Fold this sequence. Notes:
- The strands form ten sheets. Strands 20-21-24-36-39-42-45-48-51 form a nine-stranded parallel sheet, covered by helices on one side. Strands 22-25-37-40-43-46-49-52 form an eight-stranded parallel sheet, with no helix packed on it.
- The protein is 9% helix and 31% strand.
- The chain contains eight helices and 52 strands.
- By secondary structure, the chain is mainly β.
Amino acid sequence: MQLLKSATSSLSVASGKMRVIDPTAKKTYTGAAGSTLSFSRSGTSLSYTFKTPAGYDVIARDLNKDGVRDINPAPQANLVTGKLRIQWEGTRAWPSSTAATLLINKSNAESSSPGIYRHGVLEAGILSDQVNLVSSLRLNDEYLYGLAEVPSSWPSAVLQAQAMAGRTYAMRKVNTLKSSCDCNVTDETLDQKFTGFVKENERLGYGAKWKAAVEATLTRTSTGVPATGKVVMYAGRLADTLYFSSSGGATRNSEDVWSTPFPYLRSRSDPWSLKTNANNPYKTWSQKVTQAKLAQVFGLKDVASVAFTKSADLTIKSATAKSSTGLSKTLTGNAFRGSSTGVGAFSAWITSIKPIVAAPVATTINPRNFCTTTVKVGANMATAVSAAVEGAVICLDAGTHKPNNLTLKSRQSLVGNTRSNTRLDGTVAVSTTASGTLQRIYSTKIPSTAPTGLACTTGNLCNSTQILYANGAALKRVTSKAAVVAGTYWIDHKNRSIYTTKASSTTYRYTMASATRSVNLGTWSKLGNVYIIGYANPSNTGALWLKGAHSTLYASTVAWNHGIGVQSNGQSTTISGSLVRLNGQSGITGSTGKNSVIKSTEISANGWAGYKPTTFTGGIAASGSATMKVSGSKILDNRGVGNTSGVRTTNGAVVSVSTSTVSGNS
Length: 666
């Protein structure tokens, strides 16, 4: 089964050892728990490095050829012709009382978390100039344990039926090796969805329930090896066990879909999928298709109307479109509704096709009405996020929270009460001691040497990340000790000190920017209703990172952070209804991420730290292959951009600005 095909890949082992069998070196290497493997292509060969948990090379080296094994050697790349085999403890290939798991980054397309695998043997090779990872599993149990096609909370009889259908489907593929994956099946819905140990280890006993259903469909020998497994047969052959999430009220004859009739694939009524307690989202459905899409499907300049005919089973038989000039084009029902050739209709049961004559009514959904968990002030946010499932809505109580490089899982939402009363604060409390006529703050968090990452304008320590706040308001940084007056401060890196004028007290409290980043957003994750302040993020990094594709920031303020306000690297990210202001470097940046959207957002007064115009300075800065569309926004009074637009692009990046106010940038 193919788990991943990618330009590069990496994996690690947890709770046990991992060993690598290298056919080229004709050697086997063993790594401890926490060891990692990284793969890439080198010509036609597979290149891999094998690291210990401490980051050294697992493979013994004598690089200076003195006959003595190197101590803690740096990892070296190894080239393999053929396939590398990876085994881990507690599997059939490596019997052990230790039950290790293999974690493969990017192997689950629906999650930003690594895929977790308990069983099998992994082979790594090169296929079509990419790293190809294929797992060998015992079909009757190991493969089925990780099959994630139905919720494990369903009745046991349903789970057993799914196990039999899944086994039958896979057995029909066993004797066919696909050249596209060098496998029998993939782990995605192109075949059957497989999530490995995540499925069999589901919480609240659901994983155990699914495994019990699989076990109920097979028998084992006295040594525990599967002997027989129940499958679906017709006329002495394995049946084609096709299944789906919703029938829409009836199934169809096979010849109406694929042209070939099968006696066991006959249309049957399915009234259960239409019952209210089935909670079927496709019991009735509607779908909107743009004029441009319809014109593309039918190959016409435009589409004024669509008429259709029905087959005997009441599914769509054909669809005929007519353009505004009277031209018409007819498609078969399957071509019209298909995902690749047509509009991608939810099913073949189409009852009407009509134009939209009224503008849709906007609906606002408050995510705080759907809180999965609520984090109180002072509680550990990382623990709450880790415990929450993908798709969870994690709500924050009003007050000050202290996340430090928190990572949201795929489709998780982190929601404050309002942006005015829910702060994500990266500061630590500091106090003063008298030093002559000034007050001194000493902290080991201040580096003893001023950083020099990017070029600064004359008189500025633009790379110094420490911002000083008094009672939550940022003070102004000056360039020398002699220039310190009320409301200002000076950073003395040599003595790891900050000098200011007023002594700290119970009514006058100082805080200093310390944490490097607030939150990293995963694929489809969202953050809103918060005020992000006080992050000592280094140059070219953001106080907030839109890392995952389709991640979103909304209704929030990002202000008074040292480096970039919002760093957007994911594809199709969105920033809406927000204020990105007074950040030391750029307000918003993009690199590599395409089709990002910024709307109804103010980006103002960023660049105060004093950077010279570079890749990421000014209001909005983009580099590489990044593309951004800005609309209905304000780009005001940003510094360090090198032009009056407030937007800086390099290396082919594209930022388009429309219906926005642009003023005061320099």
